[in-house]
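Action item from last week, closing it out:
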Amino acid sequence: MQQQGQMNEQGNQQSSGGGGGGGFLGGLGDKFNSAAGGGKESEKNEDMLDKGIDAIQQYGFKQGDQSNESAVEQAKDEQISDFIRGQYKSMSGSDMPIKDKETRFG
């Protein structure tokens, strides 16, 4: 995990996504995250727009690895993609060519 503990622009510490490390409690947190709809398994269910948002966050904004996001981070990304889809439809009059996959949280 690189970039763990970086300071963001507001001076707050941020960690780079994804779980692990604290023995029993770390594993328990990973299980809760997966049950809530986060983790590597739910990353497989993302559509191409969600994956594009992850790439921009990882490489453009340098927010670290996006391959094991929490359920909260994935819900935020889904809101961003829904906003983009809505703006595209209002400007073009048609649906975005990238189909939205059903999101399952929890």
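Closing note: The radius of gyration is 15 Å.
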